Amino acid sequence: MSHHEPSFKYYRNEIKMENPKALRWIDNIPPEQWTMAYSQGRRWGHMTTNISESINAMLKGTRNLPITALVHSTYYRLRVLYAERGQQHQASLASGRVYTDNCMDKIKCEVGKSNTHQVMQFDRNHYSFMAIHVPCSHVITACSYARQNYLVLISDVYKVVNVFNIYKEEFPPIPNEGYWPTYEGETLYHNPQMRRNKKGRPNSTRIRTEMDVKEKVPRKCGLCRLTGHTRKHCPNVTASSSQLS
Prior knowledge:
The chain is built from eight helices and no strands. The C terminus is likely disordered.
């Protein structure tokens, strides 16, 4: 939701006017678990749904596979991903770069905004941060006014060396099945009632509402566009043919 408390309170009031019952349900959830305004910087600009969408994008096209094929696909995709990202960040380290590309792009954007700000000094010892732990344009302007380096305020999480530590691990190859330990657990079988029909369209389990109700419209002939018959038995075609003969 919103990154700031005033806008959070505004949208909360909108929900209250629209659906008080929904607001009572939302208020039962601690706000620091679902809104950026009260996360206190612990979520680094991400919410749970952001991470879920990233995983869905990574596994797109394999989610409907059988479980064994899904596990194999997940393993090999992660193996390739870690190898590619590891090489990428290792090359960045060799070139002498300190921060990641995404971090520097964000900094460049905030530096551009900082040129439009004016500084009025009240307390030079306290600055504010964005929720993503990168100095915002206001902090950059204040640092420039105080002749301080704003780069030291960037979190170490965005350094290339720390990102490389994530992807430097290697996935060991899967050994031959003959070397696998004997499995002594329970044997699971699929539920035959959940098998999809081979012919025809799959049955929908969605709960239908009045939006799904369609009025029945009489079928019209594909030639004369009249009702009561089809193209194959259209009387107008017969009449036209007899007149021509």
